[in-house]
Amino acid sequence: EEVTESDDEDNLSSVLHQRAKMPWRACGKYLSAAGILLLPLLVLSQLLKHTVMVAIDYCLACWTSDAISVKMELKLKNCSDCEVCNTSHSPYSKVFSILCCLGIVLCLVTSIAVEWTGLKVTKKLHSSLLNKIILAPMRFFETTPLGSILNRFSADCNTIDQHIPATLECLSRSTLLCVSALAVISYVTPMFLIALVPLAIMCYFIQKYFRVASRDLQQLDDSTQLPLLSHFSETVEGLTTIRAFRYEAKFRQKLLEYTDSNNIASLFLTAANRWLEEYIGACVVLIAAVTSITSCLYSKLSSGLVGLGLTYALMVSNYLNWMVRNLADMEIQLGAVKRINGLLKTEAENYEGLL
């Protein structure tokens, strides 16, 4: 019995270790199917877009600081010269307009690159899977259920076609926004770098355990939503039969039970997401606020840069929350690539004809 219990504990620990790991092979298979040209275009467009977004915010901060300093000088000199004020604002307005136009173009290029990548990956994986299934030996069809093959062509291909590109764009956007926010805070207040290392270590361990719990809660939410929708549709279709047998109370009670089960899963998922957002966000905002106020008092930091650093600190929690949630979604959706990749390893029969 002791040996059996130890084996069960080893199996459980190995299962938990596998659940905590990201499917990097499936991710590499998806990205390699995008091709040599699309992948650098996707990465470069994302980097340029977020660089321009940070530059727009930095330009606004410098513009605000300069405008406040000019007004203070005019007030001290008892002068109300409008021409001086207008000439000081003209360079900032031109730079701001150029950066905004460039940001709009880069947003369009990024969206096109993401959709194009998803379309190319889907077509390549679908054609490869179709060729493998057509040339598969007969023992493959005798040992593999037909529903499993149909799910690979329907549900998994639909996930790769529609869900993975959108999740990939959201994941890259939230990750780069979080990194750019931390970079801006570190640039505005270099003292923030002292607390960044322990904060990064803490975030790593928190997301490592939170990602597994978030993925399980999301799967529980999806699994409890399906019986609710099925019961509701069956009740609507058989409403006359239910009224004839006077089973309204029974079906109403069943519907309430399914609704409660789904609400419990949704409540735990929402509470977990809010916990991550508030816990990490409070730490980042506290450290950024203390360092900004200290730098402003002792090194005469401009008010615009202080406001920029605090604004990014307030947004880090939201970015980090979406990054972890998108990472959990991506981990679930990459299971479709993993299952299709498993079928692509099927040995084909020797066939010399043309497809």
TrEMBL record:
UniProt keyword list: ATP-binding, Membrane, Nucleotide-binding, Transmembrane, Transmembrane helix, Transport
Lineage: Eukaryota, Metazoa, Chordata, Craniata, Vertebrata
GO cellular component, one term: membrane
InterPro entries: ABC1_TM_dom (IPR011527), ABC1_TM_sf (IPR036640), ABC_transporter_C-like (IPR050173)
Stated name of the protein: ABCC8 protein
Transmembrane feature ranges: 30-48, 95-114, 181-207, 279-298, 305-324
Entries under CDD domains matching the protein: ABC_6TM_SUR1_D2_like
Gene from which the chain derives: Abcc8_1
SUPFAM superfamilies found in the cross-reference section: ABC transporter transmembrane region (SSF90123)
Keyword Lipid biosynthesis: no
Organism, scientific name: Sagittarius serpentarius
Molecular function GO terms recorded: ABC-type transporter activity; ATP binding
Residue stretches making up the ABC transmembrane type-1 domain: 95-331
Top-level taxonomic group: Eukaryota
Methyltransferase among keywords: no
